[in-house]
Every structure is written in C-alpha cells, then in structure tokens.
Amino acid sequence: MADSESRMRTVDVVAAVIRDARGRVLLTRRTEGKDFAGRWEFPGGKRKRGESPEDALVRELREELGIEAEPGPHLITVPQLYPDKHLYLDVRAVVDWHGSPRGREQQAMAWVTMEKLARYTMPPADLPVVAALQQPAHYLVTPTPGEDDASWLEALDAALAGGVQRVQLRAPGLDPARWQRLATAAAKRCRKAGAEVLVNGGVELARTLASGIHLTAAQLLANKRRPLPAGQRVGASCHTLEELRHAQAIGCDFAVLGPVKPTASHPGVDGIGWDRFASLRKHVSLPLYAIGGLGPDDLAEARRHGAQGIAAITALWPALTPTPLP
Ligand SMILES: Nc1nc2c([nH]c(=O)n2[C@@H]2O[C@H](COP(=O)(O)OP(=O)(O)OP(=O)(O)O)[C@@H](O)[C@H]2O)c(=O)[nH]1
To answer: Are 239 and 300 members of one domain?
Structure first.
C-alpha cells in the first residue's frame, strides 16, 4: 500500500436498496457541500462508533427519509479507495418499512426501475452494487471438451437448466474447426435458455456468433479499446492491478480476478486470498467475479469482499459437480 493510502481514514457506510411493490429502487441525490454532490446514491450513511450496521441503517433511514425500516439480507460490501478515504460500502436490501419516504435533508428522490438504474450517475462504489442487482452472480467457464461433443453439450444443457445465466465458452487448444461447430451449437443453447454467452479469446468467432467476448489477460493488455460495441458484453481475466485498471480504462463490462484459492487447473499457483482480492477491488469500480477454487457456497463471502459473484469451471459444470445453484 502506498504511504499516503496507509494514512487515510477508513469510513464504514451502510446503504439500503429499498424496493417498492413494483420492484423499483429508491435513489436519493447527494446535496451541495458533500463529496460527489449531485450524484445519485442508495440512501444511508456513516456508521457511528460501536453501532451495528443494522442499527446504523435504521437510524440513517429514519433521519434522511422519515421511515422505519427493517434491514433485510446483505447484498454486497464494496471496498473502494476515494481520494481521501478507504470506503467500505455495506449494502442491505430493505423490503419492509413503515411511513412514506421523503427527503428530510432537502435531497431529491427518485423511484427507478431496474432497467433505468444505469442512467443515474452514481459514485464509483455504487457501480458494483448496481451490477450485483442486475447481473448474474455465477459465471460458468466451460471445461475443454473430451472426445465426445454430445456429452459436453448435454452437460452445458444441464448447467443452463440448473440456473446458470452467464457462460464463457472456453476450450484452449481445441481444433479451430471443431471449436467453431461446437461453440455455435453451445451459443444457440445458451440463447434458448436466456443465458448470456461470451467467447473466450476469438474476436472473430464472437462476432460470427453475435455474442460477447471474454479477453484473456494478454489480449486485454493488447487492446487499446473495447473490441465490441456497447450492447455486446466484454469481460476480461485479470490477475494484477495493472490489468484491472486497463480493463476499466477500455470499458470492459466486468472482469474476473483470481485465483482466490489454489485450484486443480493451475497446480503450484497460490491463491491471492480474500483480503488481497478486496484490496485490489478498491482501486477500480468494475464489477468483479472471484475465481479459483470457488463454488456457489462461496458467494456470500465473495459478496462480503466486493465481488459480483463467483466464476468457476468445476463447481458449475454438472458433469464435474452435480449440485444445482441455490
Ligand atoms: N449513503 C451513501 N453513501 C455513499 C454511497 N456511495 C458512496 O460512494 N457513498 C459514500 O459514502 C460516504 C458516506 O457519506 P455520508 O452521506 O454519510 O456522509 P457525508 O460525509 O457526505 O456527510 P456527513 O458527514 O454530513 O454525514 C460518502 O463519501 C459517499 O460519497 C451510497 O450509495 N450511499
């Protein structure tokens, strides 16, 4: 950590995703004199010394909006480095409250549908929160097929039936003609199941299939701009801060960061661990999937360290681990 960073204060903030019966989310606007004045945010505020996150949230929502709220499940905690502080933004869902919210501190308010959330300019720490609300928590990375393409496609079908909604088609070393045929069939199945599909590596194949692309770390650094237009997803694999910053600079939609734990697919490589994951996460506001020896059971811990979710081959591929998603 740079010396100036180590001297900065740490600020713990709790915020609420308050939803109405129509599923809209309540945003409030930061007032003049505050940092990020004019930007929209999730209502909430700083935790006082000795106060639990739940108590802080109840107090803040009472003070700011005049409602009595019941804090619901934890959504995500985003560690974020701001110019003057280390922020930990702990976000809870709130579906039960009494009273009618009004801006008691003269702040503007808006009930916003999920589709329109991204149109509201928010502080950097809120971008992973919005992604956690809108995008899948699990990212399946396919294993390289063995001899039999049919059983690989069957396993993909089973993963999709189990609830996977974002898939990276990856098969390093496979004969290109075979891969093109197989990826075409796989992309069709993903689309039919309503899942998003990204092709690892091949920009041309991604264009042919009209899908998204997942950049390897080397490809990421070689790209000076997004290889596909907005509307087609671009993801990237990252291991270092330089790669994460580059992914953010060229406008990737998300990145995959790891390995968090040691994995069978990369023997001899140590995991970076959750603390390192969170400290890298602080420097960018991209949605990040954690990868490396993780499965659906690690989702809550991943979210506590600022991850959008988990990416996995083994734990999400039914032929390897036959567990449906929670
Ligand atoms: N409440 C809230 N704060 C957020 C969000 N996102 C985000 O980056 N923050 C940051 O968290 C910090 C908490 O701000 P705050 O509103 O409680 O406090 P403040 O310093 O602006 O004013 P205050 O000292 O008068 O309470 C600010 O640095 C703010 O920019 C969010 O969605 N909600």
So the answer is: yes
Torsion of CA 260, 264, 266, 268, to 10 degrees: 90
Spatial distance between the Cα atoms of 122 and 133, rounded to a whole number of angstroms: 14
Question: How many angstroms is it from 172 CA to the middle of ligand 1?
Answer: 45
* pLDDT, tens only, 203-223: 999 999 988 999 999 999 999
23-59 confidence digits (pLDDT tens): 999 999 999 999 999 999 999 999 999 999 999 999 9
CATH number for the domain spanning 191: value is 3.20.20.70
Q: 284 and 226, same structural domain?
A: yes
* Together in a domain, 156 and 266: yes
pTM above 0.80, yes or no: yes
Ligand 1 centroid – CA 46 distance (Å):
7
| 64 belongs to an annotated ligand binding site | yes
Query: Are residue 112 and residue 188 in the same domain, yes or no?
Result: no
The phi and psi torsions of 116 (rounded to 5 degrees) equal -95, -5
Task: List the alpha helices (DSSP H) in 173-266.
Answer: 176-192, 203-208, 217-222, 241-249
> 251 with 114, same domain?
no
Give the chain's domain count. Answer: 2
- How far is ligand 1, taken at its centre, from the CA of residue 80, in Å? 12
Q: What is the CATH number of the domain that holds 25?
A: 3.90.79.10
pLDDT tens figures, 226-266: 999 998 999 999 999 999 999 999 999 999 999 999 887 77
125 lines ligand 1 (CB under 6 A): yes
Domain span holding position 173: 138-316
* pLDDT above 90: residue 92: yes
Q: Is the CB of 36 under 6 A from ligand 1?
A: yes
Give the mutation target among 26, 34, 85 for probing the ligand 1 site: most ligand atoms within 8 A of CB: 34
- Which tokens go with 207? 């264009």
ipTM above 0.85, yes or no: yes
